[in-house]
Structures are given as structure tokens and as C-alpha cells.
Amino acid sequence: MKVLQKRIPAEAEEYAVLHLHAQDAATDRLVRYLEQEYFRAVRLLCRKGDQTVPVDCENVCCIETEGEVLRVRTMDDVLTLPERLYQVQRLLPQSFVQAARGVLVNLDRIECFEPLPNGLIRARLANQEYVYISRKYARELRERLKEGTL
Questions:
Q1: Where are the domains of the chain?
Q2: Where would I find the H helices in 10-82?
Q3: What percent of the chain shows pLDDT beyond 90?
Q4: What is the fold, at CATH topology level, of the domain defined by 43-147?
């Protein structure tokens, strides 16, 4: 199936038009998938002790590399994820940006930014923890904030 995409202004409502030969159960599932915006909801299968726990990415404040494991910090918990950071980054929505070499932060969970004299940015997360955004990634973050592409 050929897919065409067209960018629209941020204030415009998003919509999809499907040109189909026939309507069937598969196309009905596709319509529900689009209408419910399931494509925006990403769940990470994290570990907490011996249990596997699904975590909706909108509940994640940040993800940090710690040795061979990722630490997934939510509002009230820290879980592990046995994946590589670059693999997880591809799955996450646009609200997740690289803050430092081994850190992804969810911009929707940042309460405030504080520029520091050394060029770093200190960000307070909704779980009251802090993340430091390195100079390298701070530049990209500032540009995205100015453009309104977050």
C-alpha cells in the first residue's frame, strides 16, 4: 500500500484519508487504530525484580544508561529495561529527546529549565528529580523549542 504524508501547521487538526478498494475487518482495525491514536501510545516492557511490567511511555520521566541496563524513571518508580538506548529511542515519541550521552528525557515531564553558567541546562522533572542537558544537546533543544516542533 502506498503511503503519502503531508505536513500541516501545528494548530490544524490531523486527519487521515484512506483510498481503499474494499472495506473489511483489516481496514476496520486500521481505522480504529488511527481514530484511537494507538500509534502514539508506546509501552515499554520493563522489569521490576522478577516481574515484567508494561509502562506507558507518557508516564516515563527519563531513561538513563547504567552499565548494560537502562533505568526507566517514572513518577514514582525506577524500573530496568534490558535494551540498548538507541533501540528504545527509535520507539519513543517526539517528546523524548537526548539530554546527554546516555540519557533520554521526556519533555512532557519537565517542569522547568534552568540555564547554568557552564552552558548546561538543569531540568526539573515531574518526579522532582533533576536531569542535566549537556551543551551538545542543549543547542538542539533550544532550536526545537524556538521552532515549536516538540
A1: 43-147
A2: 25-35
A3: 59
A4: OB fold (Dihydrolipoamide Acetyltransferase, E2P) (2.40.50)
Contact 132, 119 (CB under 8 A): no
Q: Say if residues 33 and 26 touch (Cβ distance below 8 Å).
A: no
The pLDDT assigned to 148 comes to 65
Choose among 36, 31, 38, 27: nearest CA to 16. 31
The whole-model pTM stands at 0.72
Question: Exposed/middle/buried for 92, CB within 10 Å: 0-12, 13-18, 19+?
Answer: middle
Please give the average per-residue pLDDT across 107-135, as a whole number: 94
Q: How many CB atoms sit inside 10 A of residue 112's CB? A: 8
